[in-house]
Structure formats: C-alpha cells, structure tokens
C-alpha cells in the first residue's frame, strides 16, 4: 500500500475508462456494474432528494440518480473525472459536478439527505478516512444517511485471491497481475471488516458494517470468466454463504465491505 495521498493526475481518462470498476458497463449505454446497482438500491433515491456522490469518478451514479429526479451533486478532485462526468451529464439541468477535495466539502451543514462514498476510502490514509467520514456526517441532514463501499477486503486478498491466481492458468495470470499492480498503485489503506469498524468508532454517527453476501458480484467478479475451476468453486461457496448461518465466514470470503451511517 502507499503511505500518502495519490495525486489527482493519476486518476486519468485512461484510469476511469479502462480499469476502474464498471468501465465496460459505462461504455455500453451507461449501464451499471453489480456494485453500482447495489449502491443505487441501498441509497433509496427519490424525486427532489438532495444527493451527494463523493468521488464520483465517471459519474455513473450521478447519471442514474439524475434520471430518478434527484438533485444530484458530485465532487471529485480529478480534472479528468470532472470532464468525463460532465459529458455524461451534459443534458441534465439538475446535476451539479464540482472539482473539490473530499476532505473539505464545499457545502453547508445538513444539506444532503443521501450521500455515497463509493470505492474512495481505500485511496486515503486511515486518518484522512476519518476526516472524510466526519465531513460527510457534517453535511448530512437529520434522518439522512450515507452508504460506503470499499474493496478489496484485505483478508480476501491474503487468503483467497492467491488461490484464484494459482488456478487461473498461464493465459489469464498476466491480466490478473496487471490488475493487482494498478490496484496497489492507487490504494493507500485497504480495509477488513474489523479495521472499518475501528474507523467507524471515530465518527459522529452510528454505523452498521457488513460483508456482501454475493461473493461473485452476481457472477461478474473480475476475471471469473476465464477461471472455469475458480468460477465453479466461488459460485458454490457463494451459494452456501448466502445462508445467514455462515455470515461470519464472509469476513474472509467476501471482497466487498459496506457501511451505512444514519444521522439521528
């Protein structure tokens, strides 16, 4: 992992359109990946709701929340993210995108009813993640909530992913290793269920943290298509772990960690 913040220039057009989660779906008619569909579902967006996407990337979620009739705001410190999202939202009259730092949100207290922090916190040092979440809580209205998603799960990467690499086959292994290299170059602090719970204790609203029950992201988990043996193994494990009895094992076998914080 890196020890400091990543320069915004690293988050380029190429990063967002060739390797960032959901880039294929985005390029195919603004469709959403498994994770982004789940984010929309968990946010429970309704018409005229004020929504903030912190670190919006390509603007996938902003685009769909705008279609739902929300007043959608987004901040990102990457100029290329602003450019890509601006093109996606060029026909919107309600969505507003701003180039800004997530550690100092340019909004008044209690302004938003819903906030998304999707695949962002792992790009920050732990202590900056605390600042980010407290800023999100500041601009959240009473009764509102934020949804956070982070991946990878460190335990999954240490204990499960090496197995997937071993069974991948020589033709698929280079792509996996390239993905890992990109991931390691931009992730500053990756989480487990337990370290995210530690972070949650440092912010001003109560939070619930859980692991995704679908270990294969709806069968779209990265690289599964080329791993016939790995696909079969993970699909079988995923079906078992959807049973609540086995939920404790998800802290290792699930790669997606979720958090919801509600402001009383």
Please characterize this protein's 3D structure.
The chain has 264 residues and is of the alpha/beta class. The chain has a single domain (8-262), classed as Rossmann fold (3-Layer(aba) Sandwich), CATH 3.40.50. 40% of the residues lie in helices and 17% in strands. It has twelve helices and seven strands. Strands 3-2-1-4-5-7-6 form a seven-stranded mixed beta sheet, with helices on both faces. β4, α6 (126-139) and β5 form a beta-alpha-beta unit. It is globular and about 50 Å long. The mean pLDDT is 89.
CATH topology: Rossmann fold
Shape: globular
CATH architecture: 3-Layer(aba) Sandwich
Mean pLDDT across residues: 89
Structural class: alpha/beta
Looking at CATH, the homologous superfamily is Vaccinia Virus protein VP39
Q: Assign the CATH class.
A: Alpha Beta
Strand tally is 7
Counting DSSP H or I runs of 4 or more residues, the number of helices is 12
Main sheet? 7 strands, mixed
- Report how far apart the termini are: 35 Å
Can you tell me the number of structural domains? 1
């Amino acid at each position: 992992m890196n020890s400091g913040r990543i320069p915004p220039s690293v988050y380029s057009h190429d990063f967002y359109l060739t390797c960032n989660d959901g880039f294929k779906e985005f390029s195919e008619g603004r469709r959403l990946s498994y994770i982004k569909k789940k984010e929309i579902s968990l946010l429970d967006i309704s018409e005229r709701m004020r929504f903030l996407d912190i670190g919006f990337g390509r603007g996938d979620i902003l685009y769909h929340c705008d279609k739902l009739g929300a007043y959608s705001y987004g901040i990102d410190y990457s100029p290329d993210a602003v450019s890509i999202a601006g093109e996606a939202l060029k026909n919107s009259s309600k969505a507003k995108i701003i180039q800004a730092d997530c550690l100092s949100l340019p909004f008044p207290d209690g302004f938003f009813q819903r906030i998304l922090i999707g695949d962002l916190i792992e790009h920050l040092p732990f202590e900056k993640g605390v600042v980010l979440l407290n800023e999100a809580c500041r601009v959240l209205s009473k009764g509102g909530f934020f949804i956070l998603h982070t991946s990878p799960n460190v335990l999954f990467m240490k204990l499960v992913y090496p197995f997937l690499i071993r069974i991948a086959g020589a033709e698929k292994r280079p792509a996996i290793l390239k993905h890992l290299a990109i991931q390691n170059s931009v992730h500053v602090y990756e989480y487990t269920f337990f370290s995210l719970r530690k972070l949650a204790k440092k912010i001003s609203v109560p939070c619930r943290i859980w692991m995704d029950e679908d270990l294969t992201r709806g069968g779209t988990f990265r690289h599964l298509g080329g791993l016939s043996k790995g696909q079969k193994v993970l699909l079988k494990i995923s079906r078992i772990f959807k049973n609540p009895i086995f939920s404790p094992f998800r802290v290792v076998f699930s790669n997606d960690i979720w958090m919801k914080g509600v402001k009383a």
